[in-house]
């Protein structure tokens, strides 16, 4: 198994709160990994550490063999923040083209990314005038435009209708099939079934790290929601 | 390449906001016109105040615009995302400096042209030097705006930095009371405020047909202040945040 991301003994404090306390995990290359857990469990903090924008207390995060956030990674990583981080006073196309230019890519590449998120029809509109779901897709277009080897997506499907959610997941699967490593956070369990692997996280601790099927088997249920609850209870009993 | 596309991106954002463009271009001209009518009978006083204002407006406007624009980059998450891409801090700092410097050049050119040709403002030195000093002042405003945005969490706070940064410089630059007539401690404060130098440089252009040594020295001080503010601004741009 070729490793794309390796997190080891990661400790992160935000304010006075210990968000991650000695967190470790390994994410294989060319896979779609789901990062699941309730809000406030540390998903976003872990993602920020992986893309290298989070101040960490201790521990290491290695991405594609480099320390997270180091210069060689910046052209290989795509990051979608939870709140859409695009320029509201630019059109979708202008946003995508700007982010493409940062990777020294041509405008045509930006148009492909817009197409991939289903926004071609709205490409000429200002982001400020888009709906919430369209806005987050505009933001997603800017995350995938650099054709990153590692794509870190913080709740990319929130606010999207079921058809679009399905299309977006197909797209993530295609990117992984082409060799990209995709890490997707979500708290929608039915999306978890479409991942190769799941990381279940609660209060900054890893509860499960396995394939969706194995997670369900070990919890003795066919329902991921139930599986998650049982694993949490089991852990509480053990502790 | 990243720098030029960043400059283009910032100018495109501005272009989508015609009302802001109109305010940038028209407001200084309107205010100078107001000053013209205030000093209807005293053209010498008008010349002096209008000349100073040509340097002060771009500073104020660009300070405000930059601090809000940069604050938005920080609060909307675009800055965080940019720092996961190959963008360098200098691409951002110079991107804003050049883009808003160009906007300031347009502003200063329109205001100066109007003051000279419509309101009969006269200076011994050339209009080109007046615009040059005005643009230097605008870039100083950009640099200080980038710096101050780091200390504001909201747009309300960012706007409050304007009187804090601008008012003391305006009061002590020699426009209201000649610097030489100020109490020693006020003069000492005035000596470390960059606008004192840009106003003195403009006064030199007003009084002398040829650029003087004092003018070049003052302009150098302003450029030095820009460099210091940009270095401090770069220090506030952190790839990693808590």
What does this structure look like?
The complex is a heterodimer of chains A (239) and B (242). Chain A is of the alpha/beta class. Chain A has helices at residues 43-51, 92-102, 107-116, 132-144, 162-177, 189-192, 212-219, 224-238; strands spanning 3-14, 17-28, 32-36, 58-63, 66-67, 77-80, 150-154, 181-186, 197-202, 205-210. In chain A, the strands form two sheets. Chain A has a six-stranded mixed beta sheet, sandwiched between helices. In chain A, strands 2-1-4-5 form a four-stranded antiparallel beta sheet, with helices on one face. In chain A, helix 2 packs across helix 3 (107-116). The longest helix of chain A has 16 residues, at 162-177. Chain B has 242 residues and is an all-alpha fold. The longest helix of chain B is centred in the N-terminal third of the chain and has 33 residues, at 43-75. Chain B has ten helices and no strands. Chain B is 79% helix and 0% strand. Chain B is globular and about 60 Å long. Chain A binds chain B through residues 13-15, 48, 51-55, 69, 74-75, 77-79, 81, 83-91, 94, 98-99, 101-104, 126, 142-143, 146, and chain B through 1-2, 5-6, 8-9, 12-13, 16-17, 76-78, 80-87, 239-242.
What's the structural blueprint in terms of helices and strands?
The complex is a heterodimer of chains A (239) and B (242).
Chain A: E1 3-14, E2 17-28, E3 32-36, H1 43-51, E4 58-63, E5 66-67, E6 77-80, H2 92-102, H3 107-116, H4 132-144, E7 150-154, H5 162-177, E8 181-186, H6 189-192, E9 197-202, E10 205-210, H7 212-219, H8 224-238
Parallel strand pairs in A: 3-8, 3-9, 6-7, 7-8
Antiparallel strand pairs in A: 1-2, 1-4, 4-5, 9-10
Chain B: H1 2-15, H2 18-38, H3 43-75, H4 78-82, H5 89-117, H6 127-149, H7 155-172, H8 184-192, H9 194-207, H10 213-236
């Amino acid at each position: 198994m070729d490793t794309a991301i390796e997190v080891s003994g990661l400790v992160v404090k935000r304010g006075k709160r210990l968000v991650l306390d000695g967190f470790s995990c390994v994410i294989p290359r060319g896979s779609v990994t789901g990062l699941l857990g309730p809000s406030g469990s540390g998903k976003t903090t872990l993602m920020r550490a992986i893309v290298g924008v989070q101040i960490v207390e201790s521990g290491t995060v290695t991405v594609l063999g480099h320390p997270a956030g180091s210069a060689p990674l910046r052209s290989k990583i795509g990051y979608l923040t939870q709140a859409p981080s695009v320029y509201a006073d630019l059109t979708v196309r202008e946003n995508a083209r700007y982010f493409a230019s940062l990777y020294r890519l041509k405008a045509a590449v930006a148009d492909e990314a817009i197409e991939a998120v289903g926004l071609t029809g709205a490409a000429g509109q200002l982001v400020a005038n888009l709906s919430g779901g369209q806005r987050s897709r505009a933001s997603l277009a800017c995350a995938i435009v650099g054709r990153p080897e590692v794509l870190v997506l913080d709740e990319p499907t929130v606010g999207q209708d079921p058809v679009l959610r399905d299309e977006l997941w197909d797209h993530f699967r295609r990117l992984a099939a082409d060799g990209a490593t995709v890490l997707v956070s979500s708290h929608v369990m039915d999306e978890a079934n479409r991942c190769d692997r799941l990381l279940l996280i609660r209060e900054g601790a890893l509860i499960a790290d396995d394939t969706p099927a194995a997670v369900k088997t070990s919890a003795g249920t066919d329902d991921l929601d139930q599986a998650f609850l049982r694993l949490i209870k089991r852990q509480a009993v053990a502790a | 390449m990243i720098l030029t596309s960043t400059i283009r991106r910032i100018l495109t954002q501005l272009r989508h906001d015609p009302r802001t463009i109109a305010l940038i271009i028209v407001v200084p001209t309107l205010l100078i016109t107001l000053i013209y009518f205030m000093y209807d009978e005293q053209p010498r006083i008008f010349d002096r105040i209008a000349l100073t204002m040509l340097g002060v407006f771009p500073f104020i406007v660009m300070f405000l615009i930059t601090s809000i624009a940069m604050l938005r980059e920080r609060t909307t998450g675009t800055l965080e995302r940019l720092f996961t891409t190959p963008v360098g801090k200098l691409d951002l700092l110079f991107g804003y400096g050049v883009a808003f410097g160009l906007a300031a050049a347009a502003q200063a050119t329109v205001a100066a042209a109007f003051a000279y040709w419509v309101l009969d403002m006269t200076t011994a030195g050339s209009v080109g030097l007046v615009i040059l000093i005005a643009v230097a002042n605008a870039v100083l405003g950009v640099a200080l705006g980038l710096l101050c945005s780091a200390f504001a969490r909201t747009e309300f706070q960012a706007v409050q930095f304007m009187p804090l940064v601008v008012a003391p410089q305006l009061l002590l630059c020699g426009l209201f009371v000649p610097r030489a007539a100020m109490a020693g401690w006020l003069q000492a404060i005035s000596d470390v405020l960059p606008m004192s130098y840009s106003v003195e440089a403009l006064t030199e252009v007003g009084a002398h047909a040829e650029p003087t040594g004092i003018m070049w020295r003052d302009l150098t001080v302003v450029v030095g202040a820009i460099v210091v503010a940009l270095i401090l601004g770069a220090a506030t741009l952190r790839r990693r945040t808590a």
